[in-house]
Design goal:
- The complex is a heterodimer.
- Chain A is α+β, with helices and mostly antiparallel strands.
- Chain A is built from 21 helices and 23 strands.
- Chain A folds into three domains: 101 residues, Penicillin-binding protein 2a (Domain 2) (Alpha-Beta Complex); 84 residues, Penicillin-binding protein 2a (Domain 2), CATH 3.90.1310.10; 360 residues, DD-peptidase/beta-lactamase superfamily (Beta-lactamase), CATH 3.40.710.10.
- In chain A, the strands form eight sheets. A five-stranded antiparallel β-sheet of chain A has the order 12-11-23-22-21, sandwiched between helices. Chain A has a four-stranded mixed β-sheet with strand order 2-10-18-19, with no helix packed on it.
- In chain A, a hairpin with a 6-residue loop joins strand 22 and strand 23.
- The N and C termini of chain A lie far apart (140 Å).
- In chain B, helix 12 packs parallel to helix 14.
- Chain B is mainly alpha-helical.
- Chain B has one domain.
- The chains are: A alpha+beta, B mainly alpha.
- Chains A and B meet through helix 2 and helix 3 of A and helix 7, helix 10, helix 12 and helix 13 of B.
């Protein structure tokens, strides 16, 4: 007999339960049922809160989780010289990196060993870098193991990447400047966006780790060169890996720029300037098409290699470049201003002819100086020197011999001899009409406006009244007047091109990838100078004589008629013997009959006739005769 | 006798369990698509393994149902000792995952010792309390029963696995109340535990658990680290809305935003892909299962069977509640499988064994009726 059939004496309650209504135990089971309903009720309330009340919000967050907008970079446009020679190349810089979060759980040493084999960085060093990277930026930020690895190693890593979890080959676009220092000021360079730039530009489709032109043509034509980056909406998994592409807009590559520059001429101009410049001194030269403003060459010394900005440039390297003697990062053609010295006489001369102050026959005798009494105290007499006692000079002689006395008369007059000059107001007016005192508008950043003084300006800026001596200095391009080499070449070009003040420019054409011309730069004339062509022709003739028989003789080149004007402008404090350091200038154009090309040469330390003129002559020789003939021995050196 | 009792077999209970396993199978399939993008391709697929375990579980259930549950009552001391030994063994030679040691490998099979220990402890407690039905009102017996539950709970806590330790506590509490303990004793113990919380937080809780609790209150403090799971589970469930995104269509699940989506976070998969409706269906199935389990308890012919069924009901109830509550950010993270749903052989077989015990209690209830 089954022992369990016997009623269990330990269960009196149970036995009674059969007859009695539910007692304590069924109350407990009712409570347990209630507990089930209560706990499940709590869960359902929370589920309703999450899924119904805040469901849309979570749905959005899930979407943000899984969808990512990725930019597809556009390839940056190339830059070519006027002959179609490439001046830049787009390259890539590779770095080996590790994403710690993607490393296999037990096999990370194997991955490190692979990387050691390719890059030579030891496993211990990699472990250290990974540990430091995880600590600083978490598991999923790539830790760079070796920067700037060579192409062969990069290729090996690219093959390993898909089969090696955690390994990442980072590729960064770089810009290689093929001509390096020869074109560094013109082309500029690209650099990564600063945080502030990103703030300004991110609605134009720039990314946080993006690049943009920082200076030079790279900056001016940033929007043309950059193109339009593409966009891709992708679905990613929790590790940021692309699962599928939802929509895509292909990138539009940047357009190519064809510059007005001639690479060979540029190179030659640079070499020529270097011959006349000592280390750390500035020099600048521009060769420009006198009819349309095409800049054929533009050189500023000292130069720098803009390729250094493509590599990992430390703060220190940058500071070295910024503080180096002669400020190599500054384009001295247009960013710095200097007194133009006697080259300014071409403009004063034009104004004097136009205003009837002088004619070709106006003869003034230079005894080497003039004496001027103080306006208020006749006992004080000032002495204004000429560079030599040049004797009687007509207008041509005045410019050709660059007589200061001649231009003291034209600018300031000589009251005691009854000779009326232009006066500061008219000199300033004509200087401005020729484009001085305002930026030329060239397609490069950082241009200085120069300074054209007048009485009002002096009162405001210096606090002293304008005196006759200021006018004399003004008339020979000294004193407060200052110009950039680029301003000077555009101003003097007017004498050779019939009075047109041009906007110099570097862009010739914009082309697409296939060489189709998208845009062509047309000549831009800012204004016509208010001087009759016949008077301009007189100045032009005087400039020719300056080269043939005057102070600019060293610019002469057999076979070409050059019109030019030198300038030797004093600057700085006088030396113990009373002389000054001088800037040397030459500005002119050729050929005389039908000018095609204008040139300006500037040396921070040098003479107009002794340095700038021969340098300009060599450049023009090269320009007109080509490399073969131009290299012949120079007669005068 | 066998034929007579067969009519008492609760097919409803079995059907509910089978429905839950099938429901879980769908979710396991969907949640393992990222790891097995080609679907079921071999015996190592999680769904295949789960089905095999379920079949094995059915066999275990049948054997236990056929055997007399009182047999287990007699073996209770040995079973209890066995569970303590395995729990200790796990601490010394167990395999760890996610920062805690929970598995022990026996004959090439990984066994989660705490799953087995839960059921064996229920048997032991039932036997102890049934044997001392009248003494349970005494403090001494009351505390001894507490100690019986506290020992495995402490061992599990040391793994560390706080969730399972809490389950042990809940099981004991439910069983001791059904067994007739004085409510005053329970209240006093509760008061004592409340007062001890601050000390326990410092002494008993490891850094691991304190971190988890801190993260629960502010998962954004470490959104890509420990807080990641909490936030992503919440986003998954919330984004499912009322109707869900459709099975295998949940972006959170399919794009790997959920960790352990086939086990501890399987409810998030359900919430995202099947929505509130899917969740209500699940809870309804569980409620029905629990009600039937409690029915077994109320129908049991003896105190041992009643306590057994009560313990099982409470175990399932609290596992369901804690698992889902963790998924929907009502409780701090603790790794507890969702009964019948989560992938995992130990859990599934233990649950089927529990079903077997329930059936056995039912088959032998009121054997004396005529």
């Amino acid at each position: 007999m089954d022992p369990y059939l016997k009623p269990d004496p330990r269960e009196p309650r149970r036995a009674r339960g059969k007859q009695e209504p539910p007692g304590r135990s069924s109350a407990i089971f009712a409570a347990l049922r209630a507990l089930v309903i209560l706990l499940f009720g709590i869960l359902i309330i929370q589920l309703v809160r999450l899924q119904v009340i805040r469901g849309d919000e979570y749905a959005q967050r899930a979407e943000i989780n899984a969808l990512r907008e990725v930019q597809i970079p556009s390839s940056r446009g190339l830059i070519l010289d006027r002959e179609g020679r490439p001046l830049v190349r787009n390259g890539a810089r590779y770095s080996a990196a590790i994403v710690p979060g993607d490393l296999p759980e037990r096999g990370e040493v194997g991955v490190y060993q692979q990387i050691e084999r390719v890059t030579g960085v030891s496993v211990e060093e990699i472990q250290g870098k990974v540990a430091a990277g995880v600590k600083a930026r978490g598991e999923f930020e790539p830790v760079i193991i070796k920067e700037d690895i060579d192409e062969e190693a990069a290729l090996t890593l690219r093959e390993l990447e898909p089969v090696t979890p955690g390994l990442r080959l980072l590729t960064e676009p770089t810009r290689e400047y093929l001509a390096g220092p020869v074109l560094s000021h013109v082309l500029g360079y690209v650099g990564s966006l600063s945080a502030e730039e990103y703030q300004l530009l991110n609605d134009q489709g720039y990314l946080l780790k993006d690049y943009s032109g920082k200076t030079g043509v790279e900056l001016t034509y940033e929007s043309v060169l950059r193109g339009r980056p593409g966009k891709k909406l992708i679905e990613v998994d929790a590790f940021g890996r692309e699962i599928k592409v939802i929509s895509e807009r292909r990138p539009l590559d940047g357009s190519n720029l064809v510059l007005t520059l001639d690479l060979d001429l540029q190179q030659m101009v640079k070499e020529t300037l270097e011959k006349y410049t000592s280390e750390g001194d500035n020099a600048a030269a521009v060769v420009m098409d006198i009819k349309n403003g095409d800049v054929l060459a533009m050189v500023s010394l000292p130069d720098f290699d803009n390729n250094v900005f493509s590599g990992p440039l430390g703060e220190k390297d940058f500071a070295t470049l910024v503080d180096a003697p002669g400020k190599p990062l500054v384009n001295h053609v247009l960013a710095e201003r200097y007194p133009p010295g006697s080259t300014f006489k071409t403009i004063v001369g034009s104004a004097a002819l136009q205003e009837g102050i002088a004619a070709t026959s106006t003869t003034i005798t230079s005894r080497g100086y003039i004496l001027v009494e103080n306006e208020f105290n006749p006992n004080v007499v000032y002495r204004f020197k000429d560079w030599a006692a040049l004797g009687p000079l007509d207008f041509y002689g005045g410019i050709a011999m660059s007589s200061d006395v001649y231009f003291y008369y034209l600018a300031g007059g000589k009251a005691d001899e009854g000779f009326r000059g232009l006066g500061e107001e008219r000199v300033a007016r004509y200087a401005r009409a020729f484009g001085l005192g305002e930026p030329t508008g060239i397609d490069l950043p950082g241009e200085s406006a120069g300074l054209v003084p007048d009485a009002q300006w002096k009162e405001d800026a210096v606090g002293d009244p304008w005196v006759i001596g200021d006018t004399y200095n003004f008339g020979i391009g000294q004193g407060y007047l200052s110009v950039t080499p680029l301003q000077l070449i555009t101003a003097v070009s007017t004498i050779g091109n019939g009075g047109k003040v041009l906007t110099p420019h570097l862009l010739r054409e914009v082309q697409d990838n296939h060489g189709n011309i998208l845009e062509r730069f047309e000549r831009s004339v800012r204004r016509t100078v208010p001087v009759e062509p016949e008077y301009l022709n007189i100045v032009k003739e005087a400039m020719r004589q300056s080269v043939t028989r005057g102070v600019a003789k060293k610019a002469a080149v057999p076979g070409i008629e050059i019109a030019g004007k030198t300038g030797t402008a004093e600057f700085g404090e006088p030396r113990p013997d009373g002389s000054h350091e001088t800037h040397g200038w030459f500005v002119g154009f050729a050929p005389y009959d039908d000018p095609q090309v204008a040139i300006v040469v500037f040396f921070q330390r040098g003479g107009g006739g002794s340095d700038a003129a021969p340098a300009a002559g060599q450049i023009l020789d090269y320009y007109f005769h080509g490399p073969q003939l131009a290299q012949k021995p120079k007669e005068s050196d | 006798m066998e034929r007579r009792s067969a009519r008492h077999f609760d097919y409803g209970l079995l059907l509910l369990a089978a429905a839950l396993v099938a429901y879980g199978g769908l979710l396991i399939y969907s949640a393992s698509l990222t790891a097995y993008p080609d679907g079921i391709g071999g015996l190592d697929h999680p769904l295949v393994k789960q089905v095999l375990f379920a079949v094995l579980g059915l066999a275990v259930m049948a054997v236990i149902a056929w055997a007399d549950y009182r047999l287990f009552g007699q073996m209770a001391p040995a079973l209890y000792a066995l569970s303590i030994v395995t729990l200790v063994a796990v601490l010394f030679m167990g395999e760890s995952a996610f920062g805690s040691r929970r598995w022990i490998t026996i004959a090439g099979t990984q066994i989660q010792a705490s799953e087995v220990a839960k059921l064996l402890t229920i048997v032991a407690l039932a036997r102890f309390m049934a044997d001392r039905q009248l003494q349970i009102t005494r403090v001494r017996t009351f505390l001894t029963s507490l100690a019986l539950a506290a020992l495995p709970a402490a061992l599990v806590m040391a793994e560390p696995d706080m969730g399972t330790a809490i389950i042990f506590g809940a099981i004991w509490l439910g069983m001791v109340l059904v067994a007739g303990a004085r409510p005053q004793h329970v209240l006093m113990l509760g008061g004592f535990l409340l007062a001890a919380i601050p000390f326990a937080a410092l002494a008993v809780l490891g850094e691991y658990q304190r971190d988890r609790i801190a993260l629960f209150f502010n998962p954004n403090s470490d959104p890509l680290g420990g807080g990641f799971n909490i936030l992503q589970a919440e986003i998954s469930v919330g984004s499912g809305g009322v109707f869900g995104k459709g099975l295998t269509e949940g972006s959170q699940t399919q794009l790997d935003f959920l960790q352990t989506p086939t086990t501890d976070y399987i409810f998030s998969v359900l919430g995202e892909e099947l929505g509130l409706i899917g969740a209500v269906v699940l809870l309804t199935l569980f409620a029905a299962l629990l009600f039937r389990t409690l029915r077994v308890a109320s129908m049991a012919r003896d105190q041992f069977g009643r306590l057994l069924a009560t313990g099982i009901a409470i175990m399932v109830l609290f596992q369901v509640f804690i698992n889902i509550a963790v998924n929907i950010r009502l409780l701090p993270v603790t790794g507890i499988p969702l009964p019948f749903i989560s992938q995992g052989g130990s859990s599934l077989i233990m649950l089927f064994a529990a079903l077997g015990l329930l059936q056995s209690v039912l088959l032998r209830h009121r054997q004396i009726e005529f």
